[in-house]
Structures are given as C-alpha cells and as structure tokens.
Design brief:
The protein has 806 residues and is mostly beta strands. Helix content is 7%, strand content 50%. It has a single domain, classed as Maltoporin, Chain A.
Length: 806
Amino acid sequence: MTRSRRRKLLRMRGRQRPCALLKGLPLASIVLAGVPSTFAQEQSSTTGLQEIVVTAQKREANLQDVPMSIQALATARLEELNIQSFSDYAQFLPSVAYQSVAPGHDQITMRGVSSSYSRFLTGPLPTVATYLDEQPVTNIQGTLDIHIYDVARIEALAGPQGTLFGASSEAGTLRIITNQPDPSGFKAAYDLEGNAVDHGSEGYVAEGFVNIPLSPVAAVRLVGWSEHDAGYIDNVPGTRTYPSSGICIANTAPPPAGCVSTPGLAKNNYNPVDTNGGRAALKVMLGDSWTITPTLMGQETKYDGLFGYNPQVGDLDVTTFYSHADKTRWLDGSLTIEGKIADFDLVYTGAYLNRRESENTDYTDYSLAYDSFVSHYVVDNAGKLINPSQTYAISQRLTSQSHELRIITPKDQRIRFTGGVFLEHQFVEHVLPTEIPGLAQSLWVTGWPNTWFVEAQARTYYDSAAFGELYYDLTPKLTATAGIRAFKVKAGTKGFDGYSDTIDAIYGFALPCLAPGILGAPCTNIERRYDQHGYIPKLNLTYRFDQERMIYATWARGFRPGGNQVGLLPSVAPPYKADFLTDYEIGWKTSWAGNRLRFNGSIFQEDWKDFQFNFQGQAGFIIIANAGQARSRGLESDLTWAPTDALTLTGGFTLLDAKLTENYCGALDANGNAVTNCPAPLAPEGTQLPGSPKFKGNVTGRYQFNVAGVNAFVQGAFVYQTSAWPDLRLKQRTALGEESPYGVVDLATGFTQGRSSVELFVNNALDKRGEVTRFAECNPTLCAPVATYIAVIQPLTVGLRFGQKF
C-alpha cells in the first residue's frame, strides 16, 4: 500500500487515542496553534501573489510565462501542507495519479496514460519520468520515494516532455528541486513531529538542515531526517488448508489441532515503516561566471507487513503466514557545473544512482490458487506430500549513470535556444527465487536448495540523444517554439528463468541453455538485444495579450523505448516495440485583480499508439506486449486567489476520458503487431484505462490572523477523486473489483512566535478508506478469489509539530 499521509500525532502522556486527544480541547487553543503561512507572506496588498520560478524549459522563468501545463508546489505550499512523501504531494497534483502496493513501489501516471502496474525491475519503463534536480532518477520499479524536506519546489509537467527530458517523459515529467547551498549567510532549522493513527499505533518525524557559509564564495548545506510511520494493518489469527493434501497451516503458536505453525505469526499494527536519510551539498563559485555544486544524497527505508487489507477478513485486517518485509537503500551522487562563455550559459550535470532492495513475501495465496494443479508434485525426498506454501525473496540492484551538457542563449534576445547532448546507462540485476521448505531435491532448481523457481536476470539500457528547442518572437506578442530530440536506444537482457529439470519436463517450460549462468543461476537461457533510434518533435505557438494573460497551442510527441521479454521463447513472446504518444493541447495562463487571482488551465487530447502492456502469463512469466491504440481527452485547471491579505484559496482539478480506441485481444500477429479484431476481446474498444480516476481535484483554504502579537492560522483541505479500475482486462478487473471514489478532509491550525512554530493537524479527519489500488498476489482471476487486497490511504491521523528556524 501507499503511505498516503505520513504526518502523525505526538505520543502524549497517558498514550491517549487520537479522538481523546481532541476531546475537551478549548477552541481558543485550537485557533492559536500553528505555523505561519509562508504562502501568505508571499503576497501583499500591493504586489499580490508572489511569482513562482520554475525550470521546466531548463532555464529559469516565471511559471506564468511558460507555455505548458505545470502544477508547482513551492516551498511555502510544501510547508503549509506538511508534505513529507510522494503520496503527500501527489494528492495535491490533479494531473498525477498513482498505483502502489507498498512504500517505494509507487507507479506514477499523468493524464490517464496508464495500461498496467509493474512492481518488479522486469517490467517496462514508466510513462512518467522523475527528476531529482538536474538528473533523471526514473526506474522501472517505481519512483524514489524521497523524503520531502528543505525542498525548493515540486513541478509536475503534464503532457509529453520528450524533447528536453527524453525517454519515459512520454506522458509527463515530475521534478523535485532541492534548496542549494547559499554563501550569503548562515541558516538552520529543525522540525519535530509526533503522531498517532486511529486503528493503529504512533509515529514520529525528526528533520533538520543547516546552511554554513565557508567563505563569501562557498557554502555547504547539510540535511537529515528520521521518520517512523505507524502501523495500522492487523495480521489476525487464521488457518489455511490445501485441498489436495489436507495440510493445514496456522499463523498462531501453538496452532489449532491438526495444523502446523508458520513463521509469520499474527500481530497487530504489523506494517510500520522506518525511513532515515540525508543530503550534503557544496557550492563553490569560481570567479564571477562559474559555479560547481557536488551533492550526495542517500536514504534507507525498511518496512514489515502488507499495505493493503483483505475485506474478506475485516477492515484493515489480513491473514498472512510468512514474512512480508522489505529494505531499500539508495545513494545518489551528482555534480553540476554552471558557467558562461560570452553571453551563453553552459550547464553540465553528471550523476550516479545506486539502488538496492531485498524483499521477502508470503506467496501462500498463489500456492492455494495453484494447489489443484501442482500440489501432487510438492513432495519431500521420500515422496511424501508436504506443505506446498511458497515464499519468495527478491534481491534487486539498479545502477544508473547520466551525463548532460547543454547551452542556453540569453533570454532577452528575439531568437533564443536551449540544447545539448545526453547520455545515460542503466544496469539492473534481479534475482527472485521461490522457495518451499523440505522440497525434494529432484524438484530443486539446480544449485538452489528448496527452490521451486528462479528468475535471475541482468538488464542493460543505453540512451544517447541530442536535443534542442528554438524560440522565436514573431512579434512582441507572438512566439513560436520548435523542438526536437534525436535519440538512440540499446537494451539487452541476459539471464535465467525456469523451474527444475523435472518440472520443466512435465510442463514443457524449459528454455534451451545458451551460456554459463549468471547471478548463481544454473545456466543462461535468455540472451536478447533490442536497438532503436528516431526523433521526437514539438511545436508551440504562444500569444501574450499583456503581461498578465497568455494562450498557447502545442503539438508534441513522447515515447517509451521497447525491449526484450524476460522469459519464454521469442516465438511465444517476441520483443515489444516502442510506444508513442501524440499530444494536442490548448492552454492559458492568466493573472487578474492586481495579481491576486491566478487562473491557469489546458484542454488536451493525447493519442497513444502501440502502448505497452505487461501481465502475468504462462507459468507465471511476466509478458510485455504492444496492445493497439488508446486516447485520453481532458481538461485540467488550477486557481489561486487571495481575496484579502489574510485569506488564501487554492484549488485545481483534472477531468479525464481515457479509454481504448481499439479492442485489446491479448494476441499478436506474425509481425508482432497487436491483433485488434477478435470475437471476444479481453478489453473491448471504449474500456476505461486503469489506474486513473475520471475526476481528481482539491481545494485548500488558509486564514491568518494576529492575536496578542502571535501570528496564527487555520487551514482546511479537501481532496476528492472518482472511481478507477486496477486492471485493463475485464475478467481481471471484475475479479479485483472497482476502486471506490473518496473524499478526504485535512485540518490544521497553529501559531508562530519569534523563531518557533507549533502546528496541530488532523489528516483524513473523516477516516475514509481512500483506495489507492487493488491487487492480488498472482493473476487476479486465480488469486483474487483467494484474497483481494485493497491498498488505502492512511486512516485518521492526529499530529503535533514543533519547529524552529535560525
């Protein structure tokens, strides 16, 4: 599941429950608790709303001057909304939707461009690219769930961004921009938070930063955080009996008569999360024109348990029998060099990311679903039937190295240009053994004791490109933009997928050995390459009525590279092709009432060709195939209004119609193209694409006032989204069920005095079960009847936050 909100309540004396904490609290004390509104400090009766500077065009510009759909959360908004994680800020970005089964497994979609969810590094690349400062940190398994603290802004760029941001920016780009070292003066701050979750336990957050000038031309910035998220899913006592053998397992000790205990014992609040990390950056100014900034950032996240509940068991309850645990570590180093040559800005960014993950998973849902097929083969060395319960332990490592060099011409010229070259290399190792304790040695994968199945693969991905955007002021009010990116992609897959020789012989799954094994596998039975080259264009026309109002029209394309299958013979599952998205968009940026009101929006249609779809196919192998055509139409808009200096209202929404425009038949012709004419399509033309609601919106109101020299505030936020489907295929989505619509209310109040601030907040005040996704542990038509899990936002959470700035 997702950590939809990580802001939690201080552990109070007497260990009171959340509702008790509010009981009897005087209204006056509620009104006087809180943090100052930095956002409101960004406005005044003379200047109105402060401008937001973005770098969506890889040069600094006022948000209102950039002719594209951008939803930006600047520092002030991030602090006001107490944003700490991806799921926190995603709810306030209407164009962004996501599916997630656990922390760090968030798959982002924008404008409804979604076909399937993949949680492993064997799936296709995402349709949305993620950037940390100047570097791409996009990876197959999901976005890095970076703890948000001391961040300048978050930018959501909707629509294809392929010319400047490359592959996987097919549907959009998400950018996290951190605060940089500042030689102008010393700065520091810290924040402490305690919280409690209804139906769950308690958590805390501790975070801080210090900015230290080393000289008039150098500074270092150090940031650190430690977070404990409360558990709120209970693993309740239960048993499971395999029908073919009559063997019964239990998650209690001692077990009921006739059953055997398993290691995953029943436990309340069994899904806590611990996150620790930090960032160190150094900035050195070399003369008047050059700056060098090396940055090192790392984070470790550990969790236990499932993040979805089983409604067949109870509200926020599951019954599992073996360990569910995960530890993910990543370390990222980058170097940015900025300077001038004559009147031209030159920027180089190089970065290296290393991400490692180890995960243990209870696979007994799969074991029970397949019991009638395979249990009579699950025996010990004496031929006696044994407990067929399976678990798997995933080990994954991703390394990514990127380099970009670009040149930018002066922004005050009639003809302007941004362009450069880009190189990226990704390397992925993925090992997944499925184990059954006591399994007969004849059923082992060679060299892997008690192992029924092994997936051990290495994938490489090279991307090189030259890109540029040219801006030409046809008149003082009319500007034309043309962009292009020429790219070359190389992908390779090498490794092993398979069962024991005995099982392969029975079912005919065996792939021929091609070379000695890697990553401990008995041999290499997969070795494939995929190469592609092409270009991505963009055209834009912008008309500015005056300094406060503009309209624009954009035609742009985005792409996602193709690749190789990770299992099965090429004749069964051939390489999958790149998919392309073409965007047609008309938008507007406007300011009114002396810059007290901003109203921006866009209308778009996006045509998605040969989109990639991944699913669990024959023998549990993941198959990726092209699946015909789809399109997304919609309207997105955001508004900020400051009717007085004390009151600020902010809101936004996206209205979507994303659906198939051809049948999805689940088959390919002899040339590898999707078959779209079939008597019983798996998903017929007109089927809503999965993972994205038709409507998503939010509104926030913040009122500030002064009482006896204390700056106080009250704030309320409401987020709402309609229903969505977890899968594209009709049988699978019916088995899992539709994700219900929901609305969430967050409340906060607080004050600031001097350098100190205090905030009391109540998130998900109505304790709604907002559904993030629904999932099963194998093909939903088999595993969903055993157990369907509903991943939800965090239940009602009450928290107290204290901070100081220096």
